[in-house]
Write a structure and sequence with these properties.
elongated, four-stranded antiparallel sheet, single chain, mainly beta, 221 residues
């Protein structure tokens, strides 16, 4: 809006004296309605990249809203749905994402696998537990990813299995549940997603040093 100020510090790639491409945004600042918002890029020694506020708190959600590429929603979140398999009405506290057989399914967030295997009507199922006492469930898989086992730690976006129709399913789809620590299952499409974990310890110390340098460079011009 009129009167807003935006500052952006970004990378450029050069070969000799010739610019060949524009790289990542290293830091940014927006001043609007008298409030200042800053974002700083940080890459840890393991190569994981994120954007953080100057105090090291994450600016990104810790969860993917949708953990796969799907064609359509075959069944929405409902507390009173007619089940086409059981031929009766009951709650469906999940989202069913229809997708072709074998479509990769991603972990919605960093976590560890607390269940991996067949689970009654769910068919082949993976349950992930995440920080802040959240859990996500992925059902009806045709198969699991080879490097994913009970107790494995997984990263947000990592493939954990593939769409199928095992268990009580009328077609290939992912049955996806978002669970809180109290056992309540929320609508994955509307629930307020938790923030990613903040930087702590040595990582935060390194970030604060880097942030000080980048924010100073942001205002050199």
């Amino acid at each position: 809006r009129t009167g807003d100020h935006v500052h952006v510090l970004y990378q450029e790639q050069h070969v000799g004296n010739k610019k060949i491409s524009t790289g990542d945004v290293a830091a940014a600042e927006v001043i609007t309605h008298g409030k200042t918002y800053r974002a700083i890029r940080y890459q840890d020694p393991q190569g994981h990249v994120g954007y953080y506020a100057p105090d090291g708190s994450s600016l990104q959600t810790g969860f993917l809203r949708i953990p796969l590429r799907y064609t359509h929603i075959s069944s929405g979140y409902s507390l009173n749905r007619f089940d086409p398999v059981m031929h009766k009405t009951h709650a469906h506290p999940a989202i069913d994402f229809a997708a072709p057989q074998g479509t990769p399914i991603q972990a919605a967030a960093d976590g560890h696998i607390s269940y991996r295997g067949p689970k009654n009507g769910y068919g082949n199922t993976v349950i992930l537990h995440h920080h802040s006492n959240y859990a996500t469930l992925y059902a009806h898989m045709c198969r699991f990813a080879q490097n994913v086992h009970l107790g494995s730690n997984v990263k947000k976006g990592q493939v954990i299995g593939y769409v199928g129709q095992t268990g009580m399913a009328t077609g290939p789809h992912l049955h996806y549940e978002f669970r809180a620590g109290n056992g309540v299952r929320y609508n994955p499409l509307t629930v307020a997603l938790p923030k990613a974990a903040p930087l702590t310890g040595i990582a935060r110390t390194r970030f604060l040093i880097q942030a000080h340098v980048l924010l100073a460079q942001l205002h050199v011009a």
